[in-house]
Amino acid sequence: MEALLSLPALVLMALLGVSSVKVTSGGQSRLVERLGKYDRQLQPGLSLVLPVLEKVVSHESLKERVLDIPPQQCITRDNVGIEVDAVVYWQLLEHARAYYAVDNLQAAMVNLVLTQIRAEMGKLDLDQTFTTRQEVNEVLMKELDQATDPWGVKVTRVELRDIQPSRGVQQAMEQQMTAEREKRAAILRSEGERDSQVNAARGRAEALLLDAEAQAKQQTLLAQARADAASRLAEAMQANPQAAEAMRLLLAGDWMAMGEQMAHAPGGSVLMVDPQSPAALLTALRGLQQGQG
């Protein structure tokens, strides 16, 4: 009989002994209460909990965790409705403070983040919500870290994941962007046409300048050639007396043509020249041609 009674007692003692042994993994924390009062926090490794007298009341991770914040309706400073959702990275530093300070830690943090997001969005215009997102993230992180410090929580990072204006605002923004693109395209087209006209005008001016320079150079070369020819002719006439007689014969045709020109000259013309002098004849012919030109 004593053996039968001792067997259940031994089994019970074995079960109590097994249940009193607690193994805590790294990065984990367990809170132990003794007779309903907080006693200690179990460290990673093997720990003993007194049966009946002590009880593990909370088991939490001390690693960094991610809190997904659902989309939240907000109103900006310029009265535009937007929908904002975020993600919060946080870490439990003091397990006991978090367990006894707030009833539902995660729900409390979600409500706190939503409240802070609404407050920050109300301080900004719609355009600022897109351009100052990084600054808003830093402000939210600082404010949330201060607010959750009494709970033994450390907020390490806050990211506004998405900001969506209302459908009407999105349509207005799309129309504005379309108008801006069309405006930029019109400006680029007008600038291209202006540059094309400027280039064409510059090309015509350069062509005219080159043509004028070519004509001037041609006239210079022609005048120089005529001067050189007259100089060589004069030298030949002075060096060879028979050259003068040959010149008179060559110029006979010009003399006859000059006579015909004088006959048709307006108002009449008188040419005083010595037909025996080729030089005088050349001078007279040149003067008559210049006067008619």
From TrEMBL:
Domain Band: 19-177
Record keywords: Membrane, Transmembrane, Transmembrane helix
Chief site of localization: membrane
InterPro entries the UniProt entry points to: Band7/mec-2_domain (IPR050710), Band_7 (IPR001107), Band_7/SPFH_dom_sf (IPR036013), Band_7/stomatin-like_CS (IPR018080), Stomatin_HflK_fam (IPR001972)
A family per Pfam: Band_7
Membrane topology according to the record: Single-pass membrane protein
Organism annotation: Cyanobium usitatum str. Tous
Keyword Membrane appears in the UniProt entry: yes
Family: Belongs to the band 7/mec-2 family.
GO cellular component terms attached to this protein's record: plasma membrane; side of membrane
Designated name of the protein: Paraslipin
This protein's record includes keyword Transport: no
Subcellular localization(s) per the UniProt record: Membrane
